[in-house]
Amino acid sequence: MTEENWNAPVTTLKGVGPKQGQLFGQLGVFTVKDLMHHFPFRFEDISERDINTILDNEKVTLKGKIVTPPVVNYFGGKKNRLNFRFAIDETTIIQVSFFNQPYLAKQLEIGQTIGVYGKWQESRQSLLGMRIIKASDGPDFNPVYPSTKGLSQAQITKAIKQAFEEYPRSIEEIVPQILNDHYRLMPLEEALHQMHFPTNKESHEQAERKIIYQEFFLYQWRLALSRQQNQEKSGQRIMYDVDELREVIEAIPFELTKGQKQAVNEICFDLLAKYPMQRLLQGDVGSGKTLVAFITMIAAVQAGFQTALLVPTEILAKQHVLSFNNFFESIGLRAEILIGAMGAKEKRDVLEGLDKGRIRIVIGTHALIQESVTFDKLGYIVIDEQHRFGVNQRQSLLEKGTGVNYVQMTATPIPRSLALSVYGEMAVSTIQERPKGRLPIITRWLEDPLDQQLEQHIHQTLSDGHQIYYVLPLIEESEHMTEIENVLAVQERLQFTYPNYQIGVLHGQMNKEEQENAMQAFKNNETHILVATTMVEVGVDVPNSTLMVIQSAERFGLAQLHQLRGRVGRNDLQSYCYLIAQPKTDQGKQRMEIMTSTNDGFVISQEDMKLRGIGDVLGLNQSGLPQFSYANMIEDQAVLIAAQEDVRGIIQQPTRIETEEFERLNAAAKETTIQI
Ligand code: ADP
Ligand code: MG
To answer: Which protein residue's CA is at the shortest distance from atom 10 of ligand 1?
Structure first.
């Protein structure tokens, strides 16, 4: 197939008009190629179905022979019913009825063998037909496609058949022949065809193998290309002054941990390099990633560049700005904030300051990504809690400068093998330890929220002058209380029990200013217990709090529990976490036991991935990980890794494949829409 054909609009196919073309468009299918890649999400197996096992009202497809002439009966208005008797085997004859589809009669005749998809009506021994499946011209698998209103399964199937008919034997291979041979992969054209119209289950599996391999291979090829381009690209070389930076580090009131020092070194080394840095900084909650970001941002500023820190919430932005200025204002460095909720004038000032280069350091939320934000000389950005941002958002920020260096920070580490095969050679820095003097948080699991031990502990913490987080899960609407009622009920109970202390609340129904005030009051130790929904999960830092209570802990994911727990243990005092939970399943109990037995976020996330699967842990949709259209990065990880090795092998020894193959690959890789 030539390039043109492959990308011809679907409407060039016989029988596909503009209206259908538009409907296909809604499914993301624009070209013949898209259509051939519009795979069924399942197959209806209409081979054998024992009629005695079908439940009343169950939807099934039955195959059989029409044994009486199909007749349409009209009963008032336009209402009508099409009936015929249908033999499913030698001894079983049932009734089939279609309501208000009289035109079907023209397609049906006595003696024909067809499939009928419909709802089984046990008492009448009849099938209420919904769709006819012509079984005559194929195997006993019928594709079921993702569809949209107005586009029938039959129309989709027909268009796809047409596509294969109009473009026969012309789909070119993308995977190089040596690899097709090595893995015994089906030719692409056959694989595409088998994906839609499999001869049998086995051949469908073989087709899938090819499609999955090819998708990963193309991804890895693209990754390799872009890495190559990146290394050729001139990034901003950030020539900071080591001695000046040392002074900055001395302004910090505590000593950096070994891991922090190493991360700073690794990042600074990359900043000096002539290609743009792409680095992942992993470190458990409380390991002090923010400080690493600050120091390296200052390096960039001292070298004459502007720098930005992107964070997921406004609370976090404010907190970071405060602590930045706390540490560094004395040595003449100031960070400004840019968030959605700020006065028009204030915002204008910041925008102008960034544009003119007067402001060197900005910390902000999504507001930073907006088009109105322009920089004079952006050289380095850091993204905190990277899984909260999409690839596009990162990209928009990067495009506000040229050759911009970036670091992404995360507290949910990805297993190294997966990180390497997904991010390619993206550099990874890891902070293993937590700051000196931090005692491990002691975690206890209780079943009863009114447990004596907990009551005493709350009492003790308050009289020692320390503070407490009391976290509640978001509750579902169907339950008898709303989120606010729940929060307020707990606040009231605590206020009643501890009348001499202030109990604050923080929840999603408060507006930004109220939330901010609540956080501020807690930070200032004006409120002593903060009853909150999961809003405190991300990054909030109030070192005076030493007790975390999490109610209905069984409703949280392990990673989330660990994030929440990480809000305490931020000074050199012993901190505690109580999980109140009545898990009903073994897995639920196991989760609580993991939490009470370890403080190590890496261990926890590994355990979590074992229990729930990595996809759920990372929330793949928003994790910034690539989205494959057919292949599954987690289930097919071995293939992903193999494809990476194969790509490497070819790049090291390009003569292993034909020049033509090279060119086709490059062209195909450019076309793929998977983001890197
Ligand atoms: P993370 O973002 O990795 O979860 P933070 O950057 O919020 O962790 O740091 C947690 C707390 O530890 C902050 O209060 C920070 O000021 C403090 N901190 C960071 N590094 C050190 C250090 N080397 N020694 C003592 N305290 C530190
Ligand atoms: Mg953080």
So the answer is: 286
Structure tokens at 88: 């499913």
**In angstroms, what is the span from residue 431 Cα to ligand 2's centroid?**
12
Cα separation, 494 vs 422, whole angstroms: 48
CA distance 503 to 161: 67
Chain center to CA of 150 = 31
SS3 for 596?
helix
- By the 8 A CB rule, do 297 and 406 touch? no
pLDDT at 454: 95
Partners of 133 in beta bridges:
115
Determine whether the shortest distance from the Cβ of 118 to ligand 1 is under 6 A.
no
Is-above-0.90 flag for pTM?
no
DSSP class of residue 537? -
Spatial separation of the C-alpha atoms in residues 364 and 321, rounded to whole Å: 9
> Residue 634 has which token pair?
């987690």
Q: Tell me the mean pLDDT in the region 625-646.
A: 82
User: Measured between alpha carbons, how far is 494 from 498 in angstroms, rounded to an integer?
Assistant: 6
Say if residue 324's pLDDT is above 90.
Answer: yes
User: At CB < 8 A and 24+ separation, what contacts does 228-232 make?
Assistant: 230/275, 230/276, 230/278, 231/275, 232/275
Q: Is the CB of 543 under 6 A from ligand 1?
A: yes
How far is residue 460's CA from residue 477's CA, in Å, rounded to a whole number? 35
Output phi, psi for 410, to 5 deg. -150, 145
Amino acid at residue number 587: Q
pLDDT band for 100, please (50, 70, 90 cuts). Answer: confident
Q: Give the residue whose CA is nearest to atom 5 of ligand 1.
A: 288
Pairing of strands 59-66, 113-121: antiparallel
From the centroid of its chain, how far is CA 142?
A: 31
Residue to mutate (ligand 1; options 325, 541, 605; most atoms within 8 A of CB) = 541
**pLDDT category, 142, cuts 50, 70, 90?**
confident
Q: Which of 483, 482, 521, 485 is nearest to 504 (CA)?
A: 521
The band of 294, judged by pLDDT with boundaries at 50, 70 and 90, is very high
Q: How far apart are CA 657 and CA 87, in angstroms?
A: 56
**Ion ligand 2 neighbours, Cβ < 5 Å:** 539
pLDDT of residue 2: 45
Identity of residue 147:
S
Rounded-to-integer distance, Cα 338 and Cα 310, Å: 10
